[in-house]
Amino acid sequence: MSVINDNKKRAVIILSGGLDSTTCMGLAKEAGYDLYPISFDYGQRHKIELDNAKQVAEHYGVSRRHKIIKLDFLRDFGGSALTDDSIDVPNVMNGESEESEIPVTYVPGRNLLFLSIATSYAEVTGSEAIYIGVNALDYSGYPDCRPEFIHKVEEVIALATKVGVEGKGITIQTPLIDWTKAKIIEEGLKIGVPYELTTSCYNGKAEACGVCDSCRLRLKGFEEAGSKDPIPYL
């Protein structure tokens, strides 16, 4: 793909196929951006989410722009319950929780890598923004979901890119960063975000487990938003 130069407003969306990133997709569309989704196959336990990401991209009519990037080395490194089969995903039914410390589902360097690659895609597509569904309330133990991390990456982008040196820049948009899960869902429902096409379960089955922390937060969010989660659960 050659570098695109015209006056259209574009944004790269880091699209996992989950609830938060799909909400970002909807919000970016509402903000008037042409959408350029990018997803990552990093050997995640819940690789089924990539199928959901494809469906979301198709829903928004941007399948041809959707990039899926392989990062197999993250599974080779391990060190996370999402990439290392020797580490179990915490299960609330067993009295396990991730709320008191950095969770075992934290993938070392994941968002740093994602944002670096998304920056490259943004520069090539002439995108002025990157949307990422980080949240500092739910899973606040993730160090790469904090506002200060995002601000520092923006500074690096300004120094490390041609558009940054030329003074045009690429911003990182984090519209969900201080929203509760219920507010995310409420705002998404207002703009028709297709939550039936998403998944949040860390166990990667066709039916969500309902007991991992990600499922628990999602179900709690739908309940507080006064809506029924449209995906199937065991």
From TrEMBL:
Belongs to the QueC family. ATP binds at L15, S16, G17, G18, L19, D20, S21, T22, T23, C24, M25. SUPFAM superfamilies: Adenine nucleotide alpha hydrolases-like (SSF52402). Its cofactor is Zn(2+). Transmembrane segments: none annotated. Keywords: ATP-binding, Ligase, Metal-binding, Nucleotide-binding, Queuosine biosynthesis, Zinc. It is an enzyme of class 6 (ligase). Zn(2+) binds at C201, C209, C212, C215. Catalyzes the ATP-dependent conversion of 7-carboxy-7-deazaguanine (CDG) to 7-cyano-7-deazaguanine (preQ(0)). The keyword Transport does not apply. Homodimer. Its EC number is 6.3.4.20. It comes from the Bacteria. Pathway: Purine metabolism; 7-cyano-7-deazaguanine biosynthesis. It catalyses: 7-carboxy-7-carbaguanine + NH4(+) + 2 ATP = 7-cyano-7-carbaguanine + 2 AMP + 2 diphosphate + 2 H(+). This is 7-cyano-7-deazaguanine synthase.
